Amino acid sequence: MPQLSTVIAQIESDPQLKVVVFDSAVPGFFLTHYDFTAPLDLTIRMAPGPTGLPPLPDMLVRLSRAPVVSIVQIRGRATGVGSELALASDMRFASREKAVLSQFEVGAGFVPGGGPMARLPRLVGRGRALEILLSGNDIPADVAERYGYVNRAVPDAELDHFVDALARRISTFDKQSIAEIKTLVNNVSLPTDSELAAEWRGFLASVQRPAAQQRIKMLLDIGLQRDPAVETNLAKYTGEVSNQVGKQ
Amino acid sequence: MPQLSTVIAQIESDPQLKVVVFDSAVPGFFLTHYDFTAPLDLTIRMAPGPTGLPPLPDMLVRLSRAPVVSIVQIRGRATGVGSELALASDMRFASREKAVLSQFEVGAGFVPGGGPMARLPRLVGRGRALEILLSGNDIPADVAERYGYVNRAVPDAELDHFVDALARRISTFDKQSIAEIKTLVNNVSLPTDSELAAEWRGFLASVQRPAAQQRIKMLLDIGLQRDPAVETNLAKYTGEVSNQVGKQ
Amino acid sequence: MPQLSTVIAQIESDPQLKVVVFDSAVPGFFLTHYDFTAPLDLTIRMAPGPTGLPPLPDMLVRLSRAPVVSIVQIRGRATGVGSELALASDMRFASREKAVLSQFEVGAGFVPGGGPMARLPRLVGRGRALEILLSGNDIPADVAERYGYVNRAVPDAELDHFVDALARRISTFDKQSIAEIKTLVNNVSLPTDSELAAEWRGFLASVQRPAAQQRIKMLLDIGLQRDPAVETNLAKYTGEVSNQVGKQ
C-alpha cells in the first residue's frame, strides 16, 4: 500500500508525465489479493487519503481521476486488488494465452472492497458483473474481452509491442487535451465516492464475520499466500472450502 | 401471473435459499408473451404489488432486488414477457443452437411493458437496444451473446451442466455476502421504479389503440397462441401483418 | 452545416416519416471532420439552435430525440464529425471490409466537440472509450463491432440489403409506438445537454491553443483536406506530426 501510494502521488504531480503502464515482474501473476496474514487491525487503522476515502479506494479513485493515462498490461493472474487496480485504470490489455481475471472474494466468504461492484456493471453490464462477482470464477482473457472486462485480448507474443506502441503514441500528444478528454469521460462514467465508500464498509464488515474467517483460515491452511498452485487454482480451492463449510 | 407471484414470494422469504434457476419444460420455447385472448380488463384491474408498481413490473423488480441469485437458462424462444423475465433476472445463459430472444411488440403495434426500454440500454447500449426494440426481429443466441443480451451462448449439449455447476457453486457460498454484493451491484445498475412505471403506462395505452388492436386481431386470425409455427416465426408474421396494414 | 440543418428540420417535421438512412456517395469515406481551412470565426459566431446548444451538438441531439429512427450505414472512413453523427444516430451498421471509425482529434492536439466523450462510455464502457478517444487510432469494423462502437459489422456484399430490409421493416410499423419506444430508451441512455455543452466548449478552447494550431498547420501542409491519402492514413500522420512537435 505505501508503494502504491508513492506511485499515485508521483503520477498526480509530475508535470511532464502523460502515460503510465502497469505490468508485473512476477511470471504467472499480475497482482492478486489482500494480505490475509497481516493483522486486520492494520487495515482498519489506516487513515483516509486526500479524497476522504480509506486508502485503497482513495488511491484507485485518484488513479482514475489523474490527468495521466493509465494502461494495465495483464500477463498472468489478476484477482482481488489486482482486478480492482485494473478496473480503476484507464485501459486494460490482456495476454490472450496467459491472462486470467477474477474477483474471487465471494468464494472466501466476503465482499470485495476496491470498487468492482461499482465499476464492473458500468463496464460489462449488470448480468456479466453479477456472474463475475457471485461466481468468483476465473475469467480467461478471451471471455474477459468478450465481456468488456478488458479492452482487448492480444496474442501474448504481440502484447508488449502493442502496449508499448500505444503508450508511446499517446506520449507524443498534447497533455492538456489528454487531461480534458479524460475529465469529460470521467464525468459520465466514474462511480461516485459514496458508492466506493459503501463497498469498503461492506468488505470490512464481511471479512470479520465467521463465514469469512473460517474460509480464510482453511485457505491459508491449504497454502494460500505460500503455494503458487493454490493461488493459480483459487476458484477451485474456494469452491472446495465452501463445499466443506456447507457440509459441517 | 399468480404462479409467478407465488414463486417470487417464496424466493423473497426462504431464509436458506441462495440460487434459483428458471428453465422451461416446453421444447422450443422458454417463455413468450402476454395473453391476447384474455380480456384486457383483467390486466387493467390487477392491483399493484408491494412495490406500488403494477403486478408484472412489480414481480420483475422484486426478482432483481431479492437477496437470491436468479439464473435463466434459455433453450428455445424468449420474447415479450419471456425476454423481460430474462432481463430482470441476474444472469442469462442461452443454448447456442436453440435460443432465440426478441421483443416482438413493436411489430404488433404496441410498446413493451415489462422493462426492456429501461434494462436493455444499460445492458447492450442504446444502439443495440433500439435495434432489438424497434426491429422486433429475432436475435439468435450468438448475436445475443455478442450484444450482451445474454451472458453467454453455450453449446446446447453443455448448457445444463454449465448452469447446474454454476448454481451449485454459488449455493455453497455465504448467503449474506451474496446478498450484499448483489445489493451493491443493484444500486448502480437497476432502473428506477418510475422508469418502469412509465413503460407499463406506455404498454397499456398503446395496446388499446387501433394500430395494435388491428394487428393483434390479424395475428390471432393467422394462429397466434394456437399454432406453434406462428409463434416460432413471429418476426415474419408481424412483418407481414404490418405490411398489409400499411397497404390498406 | 446548413445542409444538415435542413435535413434535421425535415426529419423532425414530416408527419409520415418513420426511418432515415444516412450513407455516403463518396467511395472510401462516410464523413470525416471539421473544415480546418474555413476561418474559425465562422464556427464561433454560429447562433445556438432550438435546444440552446451550439449548432453541431444541437443538430445531433435533435437527431437522437426525433420521433424517427435514424440508421447509419458506414462504408469507408468515419472520423471527427462523421463518427459523431454515427454516434448520435439510433443504429450503426458497418461494412466489415471497408468501414473504419475513429476520433482522430487528440492526435491533432484538440478535444472532440460533438459528443463522443458523453456517448462512447455509455456505448462501449469507459476503458474502450478512453482507448478510442486518447489513442486517436483507426478502429476497423470488426473491432468496432466487438467494442459496441457499431451495432454490427456486416459483410460488404450484404450491407445494402441488410440495412434496406431493416429500414423497410420498421417503416411498416406504427409511428406512435416507434416514437414512444424511442423516447423511453432515450430517457435512460442519452447524455444531458450540459455534458454536450461542456464538450463543445472544450473543443473551441483547445482548437485555438498552440498545440492544435501547430499540428493542424503541419497536417494541412502535408495534404489534409486535399489529399485522400492523408485522410485515409490520418492516424499515421497525426502520429508523425505529434512526434515532430515533441522533438522541437
Q: Describe it for me?
A:
The structure is a homotrimer of 248-residue chains. By secondary structure, the first copy, chain A, is an alpha/beta fold. Chain A has a single domain (2-171, 182-247), classed as Alpha-Beta Complex (2-enoyl-CoA Hydratase, Chain A, domain 1). Helices cover 57% and strands 12% of the residues of chain A. Chain A has helices spanning 2-13, 40-45, 55-65, 81-88, 116-124, 126-135, 141-147, 156-171, 175-189, 193-207, 210-222, 228-232, 234-247, and strands at residues 19-22, 29-31, 69-74, 77-79, 91-95, 100-102, 139-140, 152-154. The N and C termini of chain A lie far apart (37 Å).
* Uncertain spans of chain A: none
CATH superfamily of chain A: 2-enoyl-CoA Hydratase, Chain A, domain 1
**What shape does the CA trace of chain A take?**
globular
CATH architecture of chain A: Alpha-Beta Complex
* Total domain modules of chain A: 1
**Helix content bin of chain A:** 55-70%
β-strand number of chain A: 8
> Largest interface, by Cβ-Cβ below 8 angstroms: which chains and how many residues each?
A-C, 34 and 43 residues
N-to-C span of chain A = 37 Å
| Rg measurement of chain A, Å | 18 Å
Order of helices and strands of chain A: HEEHHEEHEEHHEHEHHHHHH
Q: Would you give the CATH topology of chain A?
A: 2-enoyl-CoA Hydratase, Chain A, domain 1
Count the DSSP helices of chain A: 13
Strand order of the largest sheet of chain A: 1-3-5-8
What share of residues are in beta strands of chain A?
Answer: 5-15%
pLDDT average of chain A, as an integer? 96
